[in-house]
Fold:
Amino acid sequence: MTTIYLHNTLKRRKEEFKPIDASNVRMYVCGPTVYDRAHLGNAKTPVTFDVLYRLLRYVYGSAHVNYVSNITDVDDKILKKHQETGKPIREITEQTYQWYVDDMAKLNVLAPNHRPRATEYIGEMIELVKLLLANGHAYEAAGHVLFDVDSMPGYGSLSGRSMKEMLAGARIEVADYKKNPADFVLWKPSSPGQPGWDSPWGYGRPGWHLECSAMSSKLLGNSFDIHGGGADLIFPHHENECAQSLCAHPGEKFANYWVHSGMLMVDGVKMSKSLGNFYLIDEVLEKAPAEALRLLFLGTHYHQPFNFTFEGLAQSKAVLDKFYNALLRVKNVAAAPAEPDNRVVEALADDLNTPLAISYLHELSNNLNKAESPAEQARCKGELLASADLLGLLWQNAESWFKGGENDTDAEAVEAKIAERAAAKKNKDYALADKIRNELKEQGILLEDTPQGTTWKKA
RNA sequence: GGCCGGUUGGCAGAGUGGCUCAUGCAGAGGACUGCAAAUCCUUGUACAUCGGUUCAAUUCCGGUACCGGCCUCCA
Structure:
């Protein structure tokens, strides 16, 4: 069996991945808060973990991997959106959720086994708070329930911070009811108009960190294998999740491997609305196919900061053109059943080295181009597709890759032009032939003469 | 102020204590083509900086510079 290595934030190094139960490998990844359309950063993390999910399924069998990614549908940002737009909260969260799922599908991100919504696990959250109060890790103050960080000796170990460091330069406004400024909210009161649920501490709503602890515990157990998310979540979100879960369930491990994906930047700096370099997924997908964005993400190791540029996006599109060209040539050859290239598997198993894996796809694509006999072509095609599938790439039909899209192309008209040009070529009227080719080129139709005749594709 | 991470050829981006070599894009030359396109072949250019360890460092260690991120909501 392939051995997977992962960079574990907890240990700050790469280590061998050993699941608690190889017949039930469990992974939890923090999903989005559904208050607005997903931006590029929201896309990068799920794509990263989608590759890990695919790898785990390949290694352990798809029936033996349980992947949970939550949806945060109760949050102050949602409340704010509600106040700004006047739209019902439910409408905001449902619409945003649908957008998110659609974006993920376009990016060929497999649906996790569960996408739990926070509002469906309020009961579990309340139980968790009760547990923490009962064992002395939480206290009530001014209508809130707070986690008592001083009650936990190891607090700060995930993010590598000591309490002193955290307080030294922190720009936190400290609520005066906190025993320690680092104490965080488990449950907070809601006013009558705000979303809330009845609880032993009155009408209120959960703190953000609590959601993930409650949902992961319910769906994956108190100890599971991998917990993922964006690197920005390490502190405070994951640190606090860790604290809650470990204190609520003494003796359990919570997550054994913490995997974090590097932050997305645009043109070398953090993507932010104030810098004017903030992009939503659907905005970017107007300029390039979703697969190009996916390939672009995977072209940089997940742990590194990822720099998005439109130049890079265009380049990824060109690379896919190359791959699909190779596939287009053998569109009539059925791919032979194949296993992924072992080097691709090994590259991914080595802490998801997707750039290295992609370099092998280039080699496989070259092999396919060079293959002459149908048997060889079938073998190479199968190998390329099986390998690419592990990365969630090359799932589209080669012909529709080049000819699909907005569907505004009149294929018959193009074919007629090609016939006209073929006649001109036969008469050695190359001026006319070139004229026709150039006219089509201006319409975004590229012609290619092959021994089997002329084919066309969209630019 | 504290804590992380990075600095590789024109660009993107892996990797490695010594070997002929990442890979891709772009560039150059060639094959094929009426000319192109696609494809194939050949090819140039690199490891921020200063020290240290070593027979040997782009790779390990330390300093410096620069860049980015986190410490508040954030994927």
